[in-house]
Write a structure and sequence with these properties.
single chain, 360 residues, alpha/beta, seven-stranded mixed β-sheet, three-stranded antiparallel β-sheet, 12 helices, 12 strands
Length: 360
Amino acid sequence: MVTPRFRPALDTIPAYLPGKPPSAGAQTSYKLSSNENPYPPLPGVLRRAISAAEAMNRYPDMGVSALHSALAEKSGVGVEQIASGAGSVAVFYHLLQAICTDGDEVVYAWRSFEAYPIAVGVTGATGVRVPLDDGARHDLPAMQAAITDATKVVVVCSPNNPTGPAVRRDELVRFLDTVPPHVLVAIDEAYHEFVTDPGRFDGLEVARGRGNVVVLRTFSKAYGLAGLRVGYAVAPAPVAEAIRKCALPFGVSQIAQAAAMASLEAEEELFERVDALVEERTRVVTALREQGWSVPDAQGNFLWLALGEDAVAFAQACDQVGVSVRPFAGEGVRVSIDEIAANDLFLDTAAAWKSQVVAS
């Protein structure tokens, strides 16, 4: 059968692999593979979402006007500097569509967020992967050296997904000062709210006054709205306008807009949950290190174990006891911080694995 001819770029684009749930059969199972917030929606947020659902027969506000105004006020910028989409990853796709085409290059650290090579490849541009340093951190000097005349965008993911460490403010500022002004720097801060590193930066503050820096944030992680898909960019006005031009019409549902607005109003209670997750992250990382594991600095709501060729086997061992984690074959495993019972079951499995390795 004759089929349509697709763009050659699609031949090189990897498939996105979502975190999978545990195998059926375990009496109690836990999903630690998708970096989801384990807490249920706050009652006030849920009420607003349900109320908005009563008008699901109507199109949402295509301009996302109320949410953009609230985000502009929160971020200390003009509303013309805000763009939104179905998660920060969608905003990233729109950003690249606005800037990149065949022959361009996009520089990013690797391993990092697996959506980056997909988003870059769809535009026809080439991804330039710069290896992380020995601490599983961004090697910013090497990323700067990778910039060429073909570079259109550089991506900084902080904290880095899936390895965990965050870029520090002093090194980021030095890096931004070296990037040519015609090269756009996208700072992906999907896990910004979980960062406790004393050297941490606020992307909005660092980007202020720079015409080539975009900050990406999301309501999926700390705010717990992963299922509703709403993220946003804070960018120089011309860049934000370009993102909005490439965005799908009505891409942020009315339910998502209502829940995001309610979440902004409930930040005090939401961030109490974030603090609890950070405390639990510290407990889990400390326990793993006491077991003998080497764990990179965890600054998101997840941690990384560099298991190399044992990554898939370790994930299978976790799956057998009802815990799903996210393996990256040949590299390592990312583990989300979840409820205490889930984390304890994971820790028991990790201890058994480490004991078996030591014994052998």
